[in-house]
Design brief:
Layout lengths: L1 H12 L8 H18 L5 E5 L9 H7 L2 E6 L2 H8 L8 E5 L17 H10 L14 E7 L7 H5 L11 H24 L1 E19 L8 H7 L14 H6 L13 H4 E15 L3 E14 L1
Helix pairs in contact: 5-7
């Protein structure tokens, strides 16, 4: 499966980032504790979706909060690396599954024309395959910063050489496909949750990046201006959210699905910076939004 190969490659490239991402992991852990204090999450079962290598997950805090922990990811080798970091492996169950629900429908895109890929994006729909591997209900489900990685990277990889760029129609078709996938995914998350369970959705929404050639990611300047150049003050960008989204500056896969308000009650949102690359050649920080919901 092409999607699985891409995810394995990405997980391999970040497998040694445990120490590099400690600051973000700490801030995410603090966010989880604040959500628990606010909503009093039951200590029973938690489902971590897109768990990967675990480098962005505050494992110790998760183990303290829950009695049983189920990890799901398309990459079983990454999950093995996650387990190697745990303090109590007996609490864990690992499930290999494709959360996108469309991975099996994506052919080799290497020699496909843009027109053919657009037709593919407009025709494929999410299929509830991963949820068939899940047993029982969960007191809490946590999306671990993966929704932006579900389908966008595989469809954008054809432009990695930066010689050609996607058309507006291509980007729109990709965005619409992503929304359909997220709608189905969130519906299935709702299905596996206990009544009144807590859903924590954490994802990178905006990218702030610059390179030594003077190129920057769209929206980077606006975000830096809003924070006064200090990305630790990312809470200041809340007022810019709608404007940045309308301009298309968000990361594909970070959009809220249309059915979200129908199935979950929103309580609180936290915003944290995630320093991804910090070198003389390139600086890249993702702005991560963590929302807490209760199942309706």
């Amino acid at each position: 499966m092409l999607l699985k190969f891409r995810q394995q490659k990405d997980n391999m490239s970040t497998q040694n980032m445990w120490e590099d991402w400690q600051d973000f992991r700490n801030s995410f852990g603090s966010t989880l504790l604040k959500i628990n204090e606010l909503l009093t999450i039951n200590r029973g079962r938690v489902l971590l979706l897109g768990a990967g290598n675990g480098n962005d997950v505050p494992i110790e805090i998760i183990e303290e909060m829950f009695e049983e922990i189920v990890l799901v990811d398309i990459d079983s080798e990454a999950l093995s690396r996650f387990i190697s970091k745990t303090g109590n492996s007996k609490k864990y169950t690992c499930i290999e599954a494709d959360l996108s629900g469309i991975g099996h429908l994506i052919p080799d895109l290497k020699h496909k024309s843009e027109r053919h890929i657009i037709e593919l994006l407009e025709s494929i729909n999410y299929e509830p395959l991963w949820v068939k591997k899940i047993t029982g209900k969960f007191d809490c489900v946590i999306n671990c910063h993966y929704t932006s990685q579900l389908i966008a990277p595989i469809f954008m990889s054809r432009f990695d050489n930066r010689v050609t760029y996607p058309s507006r129609k291509y980007l729109l078709s990709l965005s619409n496909c992503s929304k359909r996938v997220l709608g189905g995914l969130f519906r299935d998350i709702h299905l596996v949750m206990s009544d009144g369970g807590i859903f924590i959705h954490s994802t990178d929404v905006f990218e702030v990046s610059f390179n030594s050639n003077g190129k920057s990611h769209p929206g980077s300047s606006e975000i830096l201006k809003a924070t006064g150049g200090d990305l630790q003050k990312v809470g200041e960008i809340v007022s810019l959210y709608d404007e940045l989204m309308k301009k298309g500056y968000h990361v594909t896969g970070s959009e809220y699905p249309d059915n979200l308000k129908d199935i979950f009650e929103h309580f609180v949102i936290f915003i944290n910076p995630w320093t991804f690359i910090d070198s003389d050649i390139e600086k890249k920080t993702y702005i991560v939004f963590t929302d807490a919901f209760r199942k309706k």
